[in-house]
Amino acid sequence: MSQGVQFQMIEQTSTTTDFPDIAATTYTTGINAPAGPVEFLIMRFDMTWAGNPVASDFGSLIDSIRVILNGEVVHDFRSGYSDGTTEGPSLYPYFLNSIGGRAYELPDGTTTHEGYYAIPIGRQTPAGVNRWEIVIGWAATAAGGVIVSGNLSWWLRTNTAMQQTTTVCPTTSFTHAIAIEQVVVRIPQNVAGTVAGILVQNDTAADELGTQGIRINAMGPYGMEASMWRWLNGDMANGIMFADPTVVTLRQEYSFQVLGGLFIPTFGLTGGDVVLQVDSTAATTRTYTPVLTHQIGARAGSDTVQTEAVAGNTARTILQRAEN
Fold first, then answer.
1. Which of 116, 266, 275, 291 is the most buried (most CB within 10 A)?
2. Distance between CA atoms of 133 and 11, rounded to whole angstroms?
């Protein structure tokens, strides 16, 4: 393959049973794809419903998404809450944009939703045929959101200047009492890398965190409330962009928070499991999703060469949001 950045479509479907509908459903596909330095797996969607399927953006319909590459789980997201009636920015696009992905949606229609979700992967796939398995749990659409038609396609963005792998690890769940409690976020020992960040999700669209907030033992002796974490990760500077065509169709909306969702940068923690102290103001269940990054070197055969490199680096993106 050529040096630089390239795009390739590897799968598409227009079968409406593959799309979100008034009842929760599961979409599963297996794809054979060629080798190369895969920086992003990209989901493109363009779907039409009889009525507005969501109260704001399409991401409200993603309950879970799992990506398996050649038998390895590289991306395992579980939403703390999801349904078509959720107001404001949704959890999955927020998460992708926090870790160096790119999740954008056109805001120009209520019954038709079109957008692109770039999922950071960062894998040098071997020569020959590579196997992708993708499983999405769709949440139920809002009342009247009966699917009519659409298209869902999957693309690869390869990049010979890719710098890191990105692994979204399985979630640690914890049932909280109204108290300050210790939570141990499990880090898989068979995955190379350091912990770039942790996505904390509540089971409702509410933070329900006390004044002690969340303390990461390895990052200091004091707990930081939710607003301080949002200051640190860049959310507070209107750092969350989302589509809400029920409000405006000519531009994106901005927010400083996703209620019930909080991405915590951890600055490359090493040494195993991450221990937190969490001040919960409600009896609730939270999930903690760690993101691991690992330095690699992408490669490709000689061919026509681009002269500018796009450096793909999830950890650097997270740090930039925390520095600005």
1. 291
2. 11
